[in-house]
Amino acid sequence: MTNAHLDLQVVSDLIQDGVPGWHSDTWLVKAAGPIHTIADLKGKRIVTNAIGSASDTAMRGLLLRHGRVDRRDYVVIQAAFNAMPSLLAKGEVDCSIILMPMLAQMLKTGHYRPLFRARDIFGASEAIFLAGRAGYLRRHEPVLMDFMEDWVRARRWFLDPANRSAAIGVIARFMHLPRNELDYVFTHQDYYRDPWSEPNIPGVRKPIDIAHQIGMLKQRVEVAPAHTALQFLAEAKKRITTPA
Q1: Contact between residue 61 and residue 213 where contact means Cβ atoms under 8 Å apart
Q2: DSSP letters along 147-176, please?
Q3: Which of 8, 69, 117, 223 fits as disulfide partner to 24, beta carbons 3.0 to 4.6 Å?
């Protein structure tokens, strides 16, 4: 939006981070190590998945709030999420974001403890959402209205506690994982998902504002109302709740 000047529109919620009572991205350190506060990260190595990602922005924003500046006070190493637990265990980094379900597994060992979470800087944020180009959304509106109805119906089926066992089975087969590794999914150990797929628009803007404050973005973006297209969700809800 700021460089290529794409007219993007927020269409739907996917997952929300830091909603009270629900999961928030978590950074771990070794429990027996010398790091007890963010101030203790001075001179340390922190691993990130990608420069400028949502989690990277959270980490940099929170450290900057505590007076810690990249390259001056700490070193950032990029790695894939699935490599991070090993890097932390081997002492190749001092602090790492760890995703579920590995987060729960590592905390159970007692060898690690949380240092901070994304909600400490963002509060409740719209971590990942569906978006589309305005022109595309206009040209294909009838098809997208039908798609979004199916999207919301499916989402509500997956989130219905009555369907949880079957839903976990679908996910396990798709991801080629044993079911027990997905015990956390759709519980309060997981990210929040709005049952009607309605995005948290202020939560979309929070990471953008932080990215601008720390110099990752050259300008702010006012998300609402210019960059939202919520009519598809409104129509989906109308179709689903209107008696046949």
Answers
A1: yes
A2: HHHHHHHHHHHHH-GGGHHHHHHHHHHHHT
A3: 117
